Each structure stands twice: as structure tokens, then as C-alpha cells.
Amino acid sequence: MSRLSDERVTALHGAGGELMGKFLAERILPKFRLRAAGPIGLDELDDGAVVELPPGQVVVTTDSHVVKPFLFPGGDIGKLAVCGTVNDLAVMGARPVALTLGLILEEGFPLALLERVLLSAAAVLSELGVPLVAGDTKVMGRGELDGIAINTTGIGVAERAISDAGLRAGDAILVTGTVGDHGMALLAAREGFHLQTELRSDVAPLWPLLAPALACGGITAMKDPTRGGLAAALNEMARKGSVGIEIQEEAIPLRAESRALSDLLGISPLEVACEGRAVLAVAADQSEAVLALLRGHPLGREAQFIGRGIPTYPGRVILDTGIGGRRFLEMPLGDPVPRIC
Amino acid sequence: MTDLPLGPFSLRDPARACGLVSLLRRYAPKDPVRIVHVCGTHEMAIAQHGLRTLLPEGVEVLEGPGCPVCVTPTVDLDRAVKLAEQGAIVCTFGDMTRVPGTRVTLAEARAHGADVRIVLSAADAVDVARKNPHREVVFFAVGFETTAPGTAAVLLDSPPANFYVLASHKLIPPALSALLAGPPIRIAGFLAPGHVSTVIGARAYRPVVERYPVPIVVAGFEPLDILYAIALVLRQLREGRAEVENAYPRAVAEEGNLRAQDLLAQAFAPSDAGWRGIGTIPASGLRIRDELVRWDAARAFPIEVEEGEEKPQGCLCSEILLARAVPADCPLFRDPCTPLSPVGPCMVGSEGACNVGYRYGGRPSL
User: Fold this and answer.
1) Banded model confidence at residue B10, pLDDT cuts 50, 70, 90
2) Strand partners, B213
3) A335: contact with B, CB 8 A cutoff
4) How far is B306 from chain A (nearest CA, A)?
5) Among A78, B9, B74, B329, which residue has the fewest nearby CB atoms (within 10 Å)?
6) For range B129-158, the mean pLDDT
7) Are A341 and B143 a contacting pair at CB < 8 A?
8) Closest Cα to residue B224, out of B1, B26, B8, B2?
């Protein structure tokens, strides 16, 4: 008999058959503490889950996650897949109520690794008290997929949903912590760079941090700066709100390691993903109160005012560079590549 | 030099930047001047920190042929594509894979099944060769005196027999001379590239200055380094001097890195080289020495490629590489030419003037 750690995903696992069913039922599902948000949940293995929602506006979001490497400093693809979706709900102002999880696996993917990433997904949900209500597994042949892809769909409820289009001139812009940690940590960890840093991904669920700030009021727009990083989030807020944004570069919280790595690779930490940060626009008179609430939570200790909405340059972001120059902060184009020299 | 408020390791200090801005104003020229740098990293730093908004009226700083990817001629690129299509593993720097050749980019060749790999150094390419002993592995070597010593080092370290170098390295001082020798374009002074200068030394620019009297100031890459170097150029102009000055002494020695120079001399001999958009510049390239011929891809796999189209219709890249134009002068800039669908090489290389101009918001006066 082979040990679990040697076992790998086979085509049989995805055939709706006994093998994966047994693995999930024995090793994985028990780790998800909450498995229903209504009369029919995961345990019933029915064709769908029945979810009972509290009053409010219902927010639904879905995201498919692929990441290399699967395990990275500070997290893994399982934690990322849950955080990505519950954070999209949180920046809409919605408390996460239920989550579904779809797995697509490449034949040969180690079961021990699968167990590990699903356990970390489960840990985030337990911490948040959010049930996993439905799931699915498919297996693709060798070479048809690069290891693993995880799709999660989240259902949340907001008292009043916050869009990313509500920014007004005069609003304060805040970030909840250091920028670019996730993207820079992944770049450093990526095979071939031979870089050793203390950088860790910031991947974390944002709801516990944002809930008190939302209750305080005054938030006019909110985004999580994932793909494209802070630069993309700010540009989107400026475009959708048809206002300008002026940012003080030296106010943006950055880890020294990110700064150094950025200088080394020629990749801006403002253009790479965060997975546990939010950008908030807040009415000026409530911004101090919101900042104080954010700083009161461990995830928001390094929250910072970084700029404000301005009536000029609608749709554009202006960066006051630390040394007194000014430039536009543009929408990033795509995956950054390191420079030559 | 006592009036230059530059201390070590406070290279992004706003107060010092303010001091340098006053200094720049003090040396501000009466007539407009055009200062040229030849380094993508300088262009990045200038754009990233918004330095052009800090320069006095009439002082223009342009990027010349400073982006290694941009100046790599199409024939060399086509040769690399062909080698990849014929079954070799072609390793090169990331940017190089996106530059349009006559038919395709290396990335497109890869999409059609060729084995093209992105590496960060020549040594990484040697690793690929060691791991694939039954394949031919070609390192497409581009870059200036900064990356060339890395290529030289692996060539001189008995690399595996299945490893080859397609050498397309370029040298900076001959390019400066070529810019000055061409039709008059009123280059008032140069910022010499800091990285290249750490290798070749400040002294490498003396022959240029002796022949063409313009100030050449070696500049570092921190925003204050660059402002300081520009101030030194302006001061020379004000005082009617044309000398080589080293504004980056913490990294650049007068004689440069002798070990690296020695490696270069052992592995390569100077040769005439084609620069995309500019043409052939005498003694501006590096040919692999005959003793190392067995690793020279150009001679191991003689491939005929036709002289390709260097300049798409309407593209101003050659004027931009010659510091005669800025990206905004180009009718194709931003529409249709963008980093996602580049027309000319200056939009491809992340250090190209057009690419940097696009990503960092052009040159607005904010």
C-alpha cells in the first residue's frame, strides 16, 4: 500500500467516482468546519445548495485562480482562492455568506499538495465563519493544465453595496497597508531568479478589517488592488468616477524589500498585485475616523492616507514623486517582465 | 564642487533635490539645449521620478540609442528566430522575445512550437545547455558593455559543447561618436550611462571628447544622481568647457573594471555592427574571437537571412534613437503604437523611449 504523500491525482479522481469522493469525504471535507448556509449544503451532496440570506443587497462574485508557484511565502493557491473572492465581496461592502469551490486538476498532481492547499482554504473560511456550500472537481490529462486551477464563487450581503465608481473630488484616498508585497514575494520566489528575501505575500481576508470602517460610514468607493496593483486600482477609480486623483508617492507604504527588488528588476511595486489590501476613497470629514478604525485592526496597522480626489485631470492619476517631480501614474499594461541591465 | 549639495546615501532626499533644482536654475542656459543620455535605466529613472518637470526652461533631456533591445538589428533577430525554428533552444532576455523581426517575434515563434526561453544571464543559458545535453542551445546575447562581460565569462569558462552564443553586443562610446559625427543635431552634452561606465571607466569617453568637444558627465541612476549630472553638464556649458566628468564616483572608477575589460578583450574583438534604425557604426560591436569559434552560433550555423525591414512606415524610431525626435513627435505614438501592439522597437523594449514614455505618462508639464 502506498502512502498518501506518494499518491497522485489520476483520471479516476475526476470521473465522479468513488476515488475522489472517498478522498474528499475522508481527508478534505471534514476540514471545512461550516458546510451549509441553509437546509441543503455540502454534506447532502445534492445537485445544488440552498442558501438562506439575511436582509440586504446580495452581491455575487466569481474568480478563477492560477498561480505559480502553488506554495509561496505567506500563502498558497488555496488561501489565495478563498481570499480573492471574499475580498471582492468585502470591497463591495458585502459580508461573505457562502462560498463554492471548483477544482480543476492536472493528472499527476500530488494528493498531499492538494490536501495542503485545501486545508489552507478551509482555514480562512473557518476564521471568517463562512460555509463552503458547494464544490466540484474535474481532472484534465497531463499537459492539458499546469497543475491546478481553483474557481471560487462567493455570495455576500451588503447593507448598501459600495461601487468603485463613487470617488469624488475632495475625498481622501487610503490604503490599508504596504503595497505590492504579494506580487513582489511571488516574483522573488519564482524559479530562476535565485533571490532570497524576507518578503511574504500579504494574502489575507479583508472583511474583518473593513467591516468596522464600513459601519463608520463615509466610504465612497473601494477596490482591492489585485492584478495591476495600486496603479490599476487608482486608475480605475479615477476613470469610473470621472475625477482626477493626486497621490503623494512618499506616503505610499512600501516594504524596504519591495523597494529594493523593484529597483533590481525594474518592476514597480505599484503595478504588482496585493491580495490582502484595500484602497478606499472616504469623504474628507470621515477620513480620520476611518483611518483610525483601520489602524486598530492588525491587518491595517500600516494604513495610510496617500492622496485625494481632485477636480482637474478627470480620469487620470497624478503622482507627486518623492523628490518633487510630477508624472502621470498610468494603467499598467500586463505582466511586468524584468529588464536586461 | 563645494556648492554641490550631494552626500552619500541620501539619494532621494526631497530637500537635497530642492537644492539641486536651485543649482540647475543657476546654471540654466540662455538658449535651449538638448542633453542626450544613452541608457534605458536613465530614461526609466527620469520618467519614474518626473525629473523633466524639475528642469529649467529650455533644457531638454532625450534618450538616444540607449535601449539594447531597440538597437538590435532585424538581421540578428531573424537569425535567432530561424535557429529556434530549426530546433535549437534559443535563450535570451525577456524583452528581446517581443521585438518584431522581419516575419515574427521570438515569442510568436515559440507560440508556433519553437523552444524559446527567457533567461536573466548568460550563465542561466549555460545551465539550460547542461540540462539539455542532446539539444543545441543558443544564447542570443544582446546588450552593451554591461551584459557583454557576462557573456565573455561563460565563453571563457569552457561551456558545454552544445552551447552557442549568437553575439549581438554593442559598445557605447562608438555610438556617442556616431551621434556627434552625423548631421548636426545640436547635442549640447551627454549623460554617460553609469552601469556601462562601471565597466569601461570614465576614461573611455576621453577620445570622444577630444574629437568632438561636448561635455560628457557619467551619471548614476538615483534621481539626485541624474539631476546632479545634468547640473554639471550645464555648468560646463556655462563655463565653456567640454570635459569628461564623473558624477558617479561611488561606482565608477577612472579606469573602470579592469577584470571585466580583460574578459571582454579575451573573448571578443571589436567589429563593425549594425544598429537598428541607425545603420552600421564602425567598431561598435563585438565579434567572438577565433579561438572560441566553436561556441559562435553565427559561424557554427551559417544562416542566410535577408536584410529585413528596419523601419515600418511612419515610425520615427530611427529619429528617436538618434535623439532627433521624442516619442510625442511620432504620428504613430499611442495610436496605433502601444506597448501591447508595438510598431517600432522603441515601443517594445521596456527601456525604449516610446515604451517608457507610454508607461510613465509621456512628458506632461504638470
Assistant:
1) low
2) none
3) no
4) 27
5) B9
6) 97
7) yes
8) B8
